[in-house]
Specification:
Strand content: 15-25%
Oligomer: single chain
Radius of gyration: 40 Å
Number of helices: 8
Pfam families: Neur_chan_LBD, Neur_chan_memb
Distance between the termini: 106 Å
Subcellular location: Membrane
CATH class of the largest domain: Mainly Beta
Order of helices and strands: HHEEEEEEEEEEEHHHHHH
Largest sheet: 7 strands, mixed
Membrane topology: Multi-pass membrane protein
InterPro entries: Neur_chan_lig-bd, Neur_chan_lig-bd_sf, Neur_channel, Neuro-gated_channel_TM_sf, Neuro_actylchol_rec, Neurotrans-gated_channel_TM, Neurotransmitter_ion_chnl_CS
CATH architecture of the largest domain: Distorted Sandwich
CATH topology of the largest domain: Acetylcholine Binding Protein, Chain: A
GO molecular function: extracellular ligand-gated monoatomic ion channel activity; transmembrane signaling receptor activity
Shape: rod-shaped
Length: 392
């Protein structure tokens, strides 16, 4: 009886141990064998003279924002690091043909990439939330990422047709090139999952190695999509200036010239205030667009002054003697008009009487309107030509 009980106990013990052994998967056994004596705080160097070669690439998924006023440049992306750790190798056939192991990053040695040009504060990319893939030959792949915010030097000279070059500059904090070497297998940025931005267009990307500090720079050349600025800012101001120019077509007797020109001037001034709030504010450069908009405001102000002068001439006392140069100019213009037609014998007497007649202030005002209209029109056309020359 006792012998039967002993046999039953031994049988149950065997079943329990066998079941407990089956509860351990091949991956558990592999993990325990690899990391039982592993020191994650030590560099995976074979010897002190052989640095760890860290292959680096960058996957860009999109531009989050670029604020030209503050210089903040944010992108969605991740770094892909690849290196070898001689301490983590195994034979796949001995562990159920496991050829890859994925574990949390806090279980192995990982580099500590740090941004050198952060927007807010200096911080590491590692945070214990990005897994590490390990191959059977000891090759590790780690891809930390997220929203990366850096400071970008902004040049707004040619806004809104400006091109900006922003960088994501990083290094492995605390390691010299004798310990860790950052290697670039390719100078191209991976764009497989890139999404376009509504305001900014990505022109070009590249990766370069900054050898003297053992760092890597991801350069991104971007430019603003100018359609919105041209449609909502530049064209309305141009149309208002041209509209103000036609004040000289209004009859002086209507009495609306001065009020019309001042109304358009105030509209331009208010609109330029709204435009100025959206222009990049920086003390290093001033956008050329600001000068062009200021020139349009000056032209509109000059038009108002010319309108007042023209009205003063038109309503001047006819008994006042007209300045002699104005008389000569008015007579010259009158002769040019009559010379366009074939003169008859009867017209000669009329022409003589006309030349001898006193030139009125209304005629001077009419000539003045035509002169300043042409002058302002030439100024506007010249500013437009200069605008395209500067921006091209």
């Amino acid at each position: 009886m006792m012998q039967g009980i002993r046999i039953a106990v031994l049988f149950l013990t065997f079943l329990t141990c066998h079941a407990s052994e089956k509860n351990y998967t091949e991956s558990d056994i592999l993990f325990n064998d690899l990391f039982s004596n592993y020191k994650k705080d030590l560099l995976p160097q074979v010897n002190p003279r052989t640095p760890v070669v860290l292959n680096v690439s960058f996957l860009l998924m999109g531009i989050r924002e670029f604020d030209e006023m503050s210089g903040k440049f944010s992108v969605f992306g991740c770094f892909i690091f690849n290196w070898d750790d001689f301490r983590i190798k195994w034979n796949a056939s001995s562990y159920g043909d496991f050829r890859m192991l994925v574990i949390p990053e806090n279980n192995v040695w990982i580099p500590n990439p740090t941004l050198l040009n952060p927007y807010d504060n200096l911080k590491l990319f590692s945070g214990g939330k990005f897994p590490v893939s390990i191959g059977q030959k000891g090759n590790l792949v780690w891809a930390p990422g997220g929203i990366i915010s850096t400071v970008c030097d902004v040049d707004v000279t040619y806004y809104p047709f400006d091109v900006q070059v922003c960088q994501v500059l990083f290094l492995c904090w605390g390691y010299t090139h004798w310990s860790v070497v950052l290697n670039l297998p390719s100078s191209k940025v991976q764009m497989d999952f890139f999404s376009n931005h509504g305001e900014w267009e990505l022109v070009n990307t590249s990766m370069i190695s900054v050898g003297y500090i053992n760092a890597v720079s991801v350069d991104m050349k971007i430019r603003i999509r100018p359609g919105f600025v041209v449609l909502h800012f530049i064209l309305p101001v141009f149309f208002m200036v041209v509209l103000n120019l036609f004040v000289f077509v209004l009859p002086v007797d209507s009495g609306e010239r001065v009020s019309y020109s001042i109304t358009v001037l105030l509209a331009i001034a208010v609109f330029l205030t709204l435009v100025g709030e959206n222009l990049p504010k920086t003390s290093l450069q001033t956008a050329m667009l600001s000068y062009f908009l200021l020139s349009y405001l000056v032209i509109s102000s000059i038009i108002c002054v010319f309108v007042i002068i023209s009205s003063s001439i038109y309503y001047a006392d006819e008994k006042t003697t007209v300045f002699s140069p104005f008389v000569r100019i008015a007579k010259s213009c009158r002769l040019k008009k009559t010379s366009k037609y074939t003169l008859k014998e009867t017209d000669c007497d009329y022409l003589k009487e006309t030349n001898d007649a006193r030139v009125s202030f209304k005629a001077i005002s009419k000539w003045f309107d035509g002169f300043v209209f042409s002058l302002c029109l030439i100024s506007i056309i010249a500013s437009i030509i200069l605008f395209f020359v500067v921006y091209n």
